[in-house]
Amino acid sequence: QKEVEQDPGPLSVPEGAIVSLNCTYSNSAFQYFMWYRQYSRKGPELLMYTYSSGNKEDGRFTAQVDKSSKYISLFIRDSQPSDSATYLCAMSRFSNSGYALNFGKGTSLLVTP
Amino acid sequence: GAVVSQHPSRVICKSGTSVKIECRSLDFQATTMFWYRQFPKQSLMLMATSNEGSKATYEQGVEKDKFLINHASLTLSTLTVTSAHPEDSSFYICSARAERSSYGYTFGSGTRLTVV
User: Hey, which residues does A55 pair with through a beta bridge?
Assistant: First the structure.
């Protein structure tokens, strides 16, 4: 079992829809949880990071962490065509490599006008 | 905000040659830098972690003699793919973390390597 599981999609929604992206993980040692957005052939861009269970909101984005269920989510409200990208969840824990990130496979999102 | 510059963005090389990829932190000192490889429609796979002034730590299955990492200063890390082969063609991305930051990872824009 991989440490981080993420449905690769693709996910297609109409403009204005609420998007829900999810990841599950198996290692309870993960401490920090992040969501990255990656456009084609570009490096990932940090959208949100959270540490504790609960919700964190930033504009149209809400990150949710449920440590008891080992489940994290990213919600995008009023989705726009410019939100079309691959969304990667990432988690970190301290290891011999320091705080290296473990990534999900990424979910490809397409927002149609 | 923290910016990481990665060069080149794209490189094509002949099989058997070596290619160097640079990763620079522009406005912060990066005590730790990470190198990832990403195949099409796959996740980022950590290859190695480099700490300034010490040897890199390679993940299991990554050949350290093939993927040479040098982190000679707090703002520069390089990845050299030696004796490249077509199977090394991939998207390579570096990431840097500022000191005292456990979550402040900033990524470079990536390097598309094609070995012909």
Answer: A64
Closest partner CB to A101 (pick from B41, B51, B105): B105
Find the angle CA(A8)-CA(A4)-CA(B61) to the nearest 5 degrees.
Answer: 100
Closest-CA distance of chain B to residue A15, Å: 24
Which of A51, A88, A94 shows the shortest C-beta gap to B43? Answer: A88
pLDDT at A11 over 60: yes
* DSSP sequence for A69-98: TTEEEEEESS--GGG-EEEEEEEE--BTTB
Categorize the per-residue pLDDT at B42 as very low, low, confident or very high, splitting at 50, 70 and 90. Answer: confident
Mean pLDDT, chain B, integer = 89
- Which of A6, A41, A98 lies at the smallest CB-CB distance from B110? A41
Q: How far is CA A23 from the centre of its chain?
A: 7
Rounded Cα gap, residues A56 and B94, in angstroms: 27
Joined tokens for residue B14: 């002949």
Which chain B residues have a beta carbon less than 8 Å from that of A102? 46
Residue bearing tokens 């959270």: A50
